[in-house]
Design goal:
- By secondary structure, this protein is of the alpha+beta class.
- The chain is 23% helix and 27% strand.
- The protein has seven helices and twelve strands.
- Strands 1, 2, 3, 4, 5 and 6 form a six-stranded mixed beta sheet that branches. Strands 8-7-12 form a three-stranded mixed beta sheet. It has a three-stranded antiparallel beta sheet with strand order 9-11-10, with helices on one face.
- Strand 1 and strand 2 form a beta hairpin.
């Protein structure tokens, strides 16, 4: 097991060289790569270190079908021009965003990299990361800066710079995880399986992590304190800093506000937080 410290800036330290990256990964045997589809879901694969180092500069092929189907692999539209069955869902070029490197605590600290997608050396219009990269470039050329979090500042004391701000707060439901048979099953050997449970039960049958309507409760998160604090600590290890973390009004509803960062960096943080 590698150190629990998540050295997210390792790639920057190696000055962008494949040799430096090979040194960072010298004790690893595999990496995970993932891009973001139209639903905001991560789609990717685990790759051997040797294969990864051979494609990290050039990119590799990945089926365009991930922009043609939903999270259940059902086609969005037969007339999809970005990912078409008539073209056999031809591969897009998957480009490794090298500065996105993180180590995943829940996967034995395996190195993880985010991808963006190009076709014929042009950004794929459905690729959110490519869109943010292009937007950041256009803002910079116009003398503007994109910031996620809502903090206005100047770069030069004699010149006020225009800053595009986006407040990034995530609110979501948290549930106790049932086995396939539900919560009544007392057999500890039963594997927790939310998807299997929902095949035979209504979503309303899920038990929320906290009961009732109580925003900003101090006491209720402590009933699940291991989970509550693990979210904060794990995000910190992933360099996805949370500025505030609390219950919101609603059974099992929590809210997280992300630390102020530039909008291109925000893409890394929001994707990893999901």
């Amino acid at each position: 097991m590698k150190s629990e410290i998540n050295n997210t800036k390792d790639w920057a330290k190696c000055n962008g060289s494949s040799h430096g990256l090979a040194e960072i990964l010298k004790n690893d045997t595999r990496v995970q790569l993932a891009g973001i589809d139209c639903d905001g879901q991560l789609r990717g694969k685990v790759m051997s270190k040797e294969k990864f180092l051979s494609i990290v500069d050039s990119g590799f092929g990945m089926s365009s079908a991930i922009f043609g189907w939903d999270m259940h692999d059902m086609l969005f539209d037969e007339n999809n021009t970005i990912a078409s069955s008539e073209q056999g869902y031809a591969d897009f070029t998957s480009v490794v965003d090298q500065l996105s490197m993180r180590r995943l605590p829940w996967a034995q600290n395996m190195p993880f990299f985010l991808l963006r997608f190009t076709a014929n050396d042009q950004a794929v219009s459905a690729c959110g990361r490519s869109m943010i990269k292009m937007l950041s470039k256009n803002l910079a050329e116009a003398g503007c800066k994109g910031v996620a979090g809502g903090m206005l500042y100047t770069i030069h004391p004699s010149k006020c710079q225009v800053v595009l701000m986006a407040e990034v707060e995530l609110e979501f439901f948290n549930y106790q995880t049932p086995s396939e048979d539900g919560y009544h099953d007392q057999n500890p050997s039963k594997r927790k399986n939310l998807a299997a449970f929902l095949r035979n039960h209504q979503p309303s049958d899920l038990r929320p992590l906290t009961d009732g309507m109580f925003g900003y409760s101090v006491a209720r998160p402590m009933a699940s304190s291991d989970f509550f604090f693990d979210v904060i600590d794990t995000c910190a290890r992933l360099d996805c800093q949370i500025e505030s973390w609390h219950t919101e009004s609603g059974p099992g509803v929590f809210e997280a506000a992300l630390r102020v960062c530039e909008i291109e960096e925000m893409a890394d943080r929001v994707s990893l937080f999901k």
